[in-house]
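testing teh design pipeline on a random one, pls ignore if ur not involved
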């Protein structure tokens, strides 16, 4: 219901805005704007980043404004059923690749489960060896960089009480100026609405702060002898903030 309300509102207030829906369990199904045949990605494809990108690029050209596609997308939405495992990593890669074709796009990830299928799997993260953990971290870090460079904001909504490894997914939000929300089912509508209503004001933003020469920054990434510090903020909206510590 939370997603449907936002789709309906968007179709009325921003009918030319393009909306694509992607659902995932043990497969990734690209529903797009709901008007065409879904594209299902499964099996070995879920572990192949290049194959996932190619599929996303082919599908991305066939998405139209929500004003003429709301009814079709709404029908697809209410046909969804929960099932099986969670191919979150592959779904994210497909979503970012589609969104990257239009600067200022947003990806909103709603999940109640841990990424445990395909590329970016975090299943058993605590028991992985160092190389496996590094590979998983690198996937989300690189995806965040790709999204930020393309002017795409990624936000993550997870359900309270579920294990989703938000510290990994949070890398995407941090890199792109998105939000990370842990919500109850009762407040999902409000959180979803707040994320969608924040327009991106600028892309790939870099902020530099200057201090009096008698002051120094305490940030671990700053030059201990410098009174100037630069931070990459990615995409920013009216609520974006940056914090500095100095003395």
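output:
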């Amino acid at each position: 219901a939370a997603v449907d309300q936002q789709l309906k509102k968007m179709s009325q207030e921003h009918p030319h805005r393009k909306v694509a829906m992607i659902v995932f369990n043990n497969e990734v199904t690209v529903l797009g704007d709901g008007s065409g045949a879904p594209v299902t990605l499964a099996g070995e494809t879920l572990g192949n980043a290049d194959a996932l990108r190619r599929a996303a690029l082919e599908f991305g050209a066939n998405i139209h404004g929500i004003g003429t596609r709301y009814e079709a997308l709404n029908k697809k939405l209410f046909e969804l059923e929960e099932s099986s495992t969670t191919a979150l990593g592959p779904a994210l890669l497909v979503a970012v690749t589609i969104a990257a074709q239009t600067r200022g796009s947003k990806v909103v990830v709603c999940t109640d489960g841990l990424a445990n299928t395909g590329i970016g799997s975090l299943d058993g993260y605590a028991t992985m060896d160092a190389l496996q953990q590094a590979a998983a971290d690198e996937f989300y870090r690189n995806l965040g960089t790709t999204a930020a460079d393309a002017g795409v904001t990624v936000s993550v909504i997870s359900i309270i009480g579920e294990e989703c490894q938000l510290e990994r997914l949070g890398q995407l939000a941090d890199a792109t100026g998105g939000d990370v929300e842990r919500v109850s089912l009762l407040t999902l509508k409000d959180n979803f609405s707040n994320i969608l209503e924040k327009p991106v004001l600028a892309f790939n933003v870099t902020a530099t702060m200057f201090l009096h020469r008698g002051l120094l920054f305490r940030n671990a990434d700053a030059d201990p002898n410098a009174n100037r510090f630069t931070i990459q903020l990615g995409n920013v909206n009216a609520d974006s903030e940056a914090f500095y510590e100095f003395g």
